[in-house]
Design goal:
mainly beta; 2 domains; 15-stranded mixed beta sheet
Length: about 375
């Protein structure tokens, strides 16, 4: 299906925006495991949504955002101002805007020392989105409740992006719903009958956060200063490992999430499902020579690495498609699925680690993955 046809299809299935929703206010604490990732508070009136956030990764920033609604409930303008609280590289303040007009969104976003201007075709009722904004997710939940029924579909456009994401909301009982947010995966929401967001779990999705609505006020100025010196840095920093075995040069590029007090396998990483084996971009293995991996011949070249963790044993997947985001797994490109040796570790490994370990004979080695209390490995040798 062409992109144009896909957009036309989305335009046909997306629910129209509701009339103005009632006003309210609220605040959220966003956690990633044991770490507080962000704080947010907002006020929603019939014609305007505005709020602020303190976000701690990769550095601490203070965000001010606002959305203006038309008489039909559709958003007409979205604005985001970001202040660099922790200092360091980059401007002290940036501003980005989105203007919604008919079937188009006109965005102006910072691009190094200038502004980039984008125009994107969208369906009626498309909402703005920027990462970790939960007042905007609540807006979707409230519209789903107002529309009635067990299912609701809309679209969002991420600030500064050109790809329109489909959002699918499904009612799960009186006080909960699931929300599939484009490529980010499935979020599980606790809501009241009006769609007010009471809590959220992103465990198993790309976001992996938990969100709780809080009572009372949050001292944003004091908290922003407190967090400024304690930024979390990149949540899953990029890394690489490289080794030479019998003249074959092997290299792995991947991202390294941390435990942060969470249960990993069987929870954050579900059993018996394909896992990206890291975070962010798909993990890539490159070999300069033909190999034999776990008894399977593997020609020289690049492969994305995926795994299927299971209580009964792991499988390593070598996939011939590379360069994709870590949620874009396509089984049709699988080159091989290999059994892995699994060991339980005496001490937990906080940060996901991939290693290439040459053996003493210099002619073979092991590719190992270690996280939490699990190490999974496959043997390899030059063919």
């Amino acid at each position: 299906m062409t992109r144009t046809a896909s957009r036309l299809l989305i335009a046909c299935i997306v629910a129209a925006p509701p009339l103005a929703l009632a006003g309210q206010s609220g605040a959220f604490i966003v956690r990633l495991g044991t770490d507080t990732l962000a704080l947010e508070r907002y006020t929603r009136s019939a014609g305007r949504l505005e709020g602020e956030q303190v976000v701690r990764a990769p550095r601490t920033v203070h965000r001010l955002y606002s959305a203006t609604f038309g008489r039909d409930g559709a958003i007409e303008r979205f604005e985001l101002v970001t202040h660099n609280v922790s200092g360091g590289p980059g401007p002290a303040e940036t501003k980005a805007t989105m203007e919604f007009a008919g079937d188009s969104v006109f965005s102006a976003v910072p691009d190094r020392d200038s502004m980039a201007h984008l125009r994107v075709k969208v369906a009626l009722g498309t909402l703005p989105w920027h990462f970790q904004n939960y007042a905007l997710l609540e807006e979707i939940a409230r519209r789903a409740r107002a529309a009635g029924g067990d299912r609701y579909t809309t679209t969002v456009l991420q600030l500064g992006d050109t790809d329109v994401w489909t959002v699918e909301v499904a009612r799960v009982g009186r006080d909960s719903m699931t929300m599939v947010l484009g490529p980010l995966g499935t979020l599980r929401l606790r809501v009241d009958e009006g769609g007010t967001l009471l809590g959220l779990s992103g465990i198993g999705s790309t976001m992996q956060v938990t969100v709780e609505r809080v009572r009372g006020t949050l001292a944003f100025a004091a908290l922003g200063k407190s967090f400024a010196a304690r930024s979390l840095g990149p949540l899953s920093p990029a890394d690489s490992v490289r080794a030479s075995v019998a003249g074959a040069v092997l290299a792995v590029r991947y991202s390294r999430p941390s435990m942060r007090g969470r249960v990993i396998f069987g929870s954050m990483v579900p059993w018996n499902k394909v896992w990206r084996t890291g975070a962010n971009q798909a993990t890539v293995l490159e070999t300069s020579a033909d190999l034999v991996v776990a008894g399977t011949p593997v020609p020289a070249g690049k492969y994305s690495l995926w795994t299927i963790p299971s209580p009964d044993g792991w499988k390593l997947i070598l996939n011939s498609n590379t360069g994709q985001w870590g949620t874009d797994y396509a089984a049709k490109y699988d080159f091989a699925r290999l059994d892995m040796k699994v060991e339980r570790l005496a001490q937990p490994v906080e940060q996901f680690t991939i290693a290439i370990a040459p053996q003493g004979d210099g002619q073979s080695g092991w590719l190992t993955l270690a996280w939490e209390r699990t190490r999974a490995s496959v043997p390899f040798a030059k063919q």
